[in-house]
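Fold these two proteins, one after the other.
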Amino acid sequence: MTRKAERRFWLYILASKPRGVLYVGVTNDLVRRVWQHREGVVDGFTRKYFVRKLVYFEEHATAEAAIEREKKLKRWRRAWKVALIEKSNPYWHDLFEEIAA
């Protein structure tokens, strides 16, 4: 009997630069989705405002949990999002290489 592969879901935050424009999103394939944003493949907000740096991410077991967290963060004040990012990434490093390896 084969087990169904576990699916993982990700909440992520992209930034245009340290303390710049922020974008909060959810995906089931973090590497692919961030790559799409970085390459400008995704038409819309991130392409228009050059939001390309992955500065924060967290894993969730279900799509529902990730989406719930996304909705919660989107209601947060900007200062709270900045504090969340700086707690684990104080220098606003681009974390893409870390996840793509």
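Now the second one:
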Amino acid sequence: MKVTVLKRQTLSDIALQVYGDISGLPGIARANGLAMTAELAVGQVLQCPDVVFDAYLQNYVRKYGIKPATAYDGEGEIRQRIFTEEFTLEFT
């Protein structure tokens, strides 16, 4: 199966989208010659091995078109830091 990468998708997201389970992550990475933590490009086409890890979850994500996109791209209001620029020595 081939999957086209959407904005903010990681290999973990693709594994969830295709298999309903991140167990497929290593196989997708291997099939595409990528590291499991590789950054993906929007529109990149990935080959996903034809395997089943959990038939119920796989059918569910496909039936409802679930397409997670969890990578932080620097846009939006979500911040990936615990402390802001106002962090001072009082906290140490």
